[in-house]
Amino acid sequence: MSGSILAVSHLYKRFAGLVATNDLSLHVNPGETHALIGPNGAGKTTLIAQLQGELTPDSGAITFKGRDITGEPPWRRSQMGVARSFQITSIFPQFTALANVGLAVQARAGHGFRFFRNAWRDPALTGPAMEALETIGLAHRAHIVAEDLSHGERRQLELAMALAMRPALLLLDEPMAGMGRQDGQRMTRILADLKKDYAILIVEHDMDAVFALADRVSVLVAGAIIATGAPDAIRNDPAVKAAYLGHRS
Amino acid sequence: MRDPLPPPAPPASPSAGALLAANWPILLGLALLALVPTVASALDNPFYIRLFTRAVIFAMVAVSLNFVLGFGGLVSLMHASLFGVGAYVVAILAHHDYESTTLFGFAGADDLAISIPLAILASALVAGLSGLVSLRTSGSYFIMITLAFNQMLYYFFVALQQYGGEDGLQILGNLHFAGLQITQRVTFFYVTLGVLAVLLLLFARLVQSRFGVILRATAQNERRVVALGVPPLRYKLAAFVISGAVAGLAGALWATGQGFVSPSDLSWVRSGDYVVMAVLGGMARVWGPVFGALLFVLLEAFLPSWTDFWQLPFGLVVILIVVFLRGGLVDLLGSGTSGKGERT
Between the CA of residue A34 and those of A172, A201, A214, B74, what are the distances in Å? Predict the structure, then answer.
């Protein structure tokens, strides 16, 4: 699709007999929040991993901002503006929250072959890092070591790290995974705020959040997209009900 | 691997008092070491100077190893060989100088101002080439590949018959540093102590720099570092080269002080000893391994006079420290990883 920030066309990924991604095509428009839903094992995380570059598709193409990035290594995709938050929280447990985000700022700021100046006291790093923490509502916890943060706070921290990369596209893999109701609602509010500024592809099981946030929803079953459309249309799609939503009630 | 540092830094510089509180053990340790020649001459026992020179040089290797081990999460078993390359460069250049022969058309050198930089360069080069291969692996594969490199280099020097092969190479002639006589026993001890102090300062800066932060982050969660847009291999390689260069410097000083090098300086057991020193001393702090090296060298020197089976109590000491002081001797000195305060 021309004009879209991310376009995936005819993507295939196979693991020894299991087809994890099956002729998958989708696109994300600028400013759009696109939700990806589907039952467990549908291949949602596998797709995110291919978009971020951790996994290489067997065939098909991924275009980001009009450039074919199918063969680019993950770190280069990140530098180009693809930021991923992980399903299982992935942070630096022995650094403080601020240092975690500072590292993301540093990654954006170019190479890290600076050997002498103290990075923890470099306002060029801590300034933007603090900003990202404020955006996400974690500034008051900036100096806490990450492993001492609560689960919900770590999920927020992970998001702050993604924001500090100043990405053009956020790939969010179940940002509310494992969160209680209160934390989940809080995260939904944060994301509702972010969606004004970013193109987002979000995988989420929390249907309330999905229908509140998404501009469009794609339904993934057994590696293939069976429906894409506005949230209301998806909610009422009989095929989707049968394949997915029906399991929940 | 538990990363040590940084509680982070409120933006202001830490007060001198905070720095002192965090680093008093090493400041005290270096001050006591500076007294060694005085005490040794009072006891009329120059053996102590030799012994502590050995400890200080091994401390340099253990500190350089810990830079990649404690901060980079890379268990290298080839640091003895990197040390040995540095030592052989000094010895071989001195050999050609003494014999007035040439090596690949170049004259030898008895000037350490020439041979030490070349030794550092040679070790850095070897670290870089072996790192290019070994750093593509991780975990136990990395350990095994570095061990293999260590053995390759060991047998390389065993095979060099013109430089003594298995018997090693004696340095004849008079080594000097740009005309300065530094090989006299007491002078040389202070030279090595000064070099160690400078290295500690440099590494302390390094682990807090942007480069050091990336290295430590890579040890904690490499996948995340990649996802942030940082390719980790080049940083690990740079760290390995820096570490190898310092090991080479230590080897060059070793050759200078001993007047003799042999392949046993490159033995893989020695590589393991450096790991033990780093673990004993404590990997969470840049200076932790200094205490590990001191304890190691002292035990190795004095236990044999007590029993022929000295390796038994030696092993017990190592086990006890690892079991009861999980952060190494640094924990015993009360400035280990348990308190999450300002670290340097």
Answer: 10, 5, 6, 41
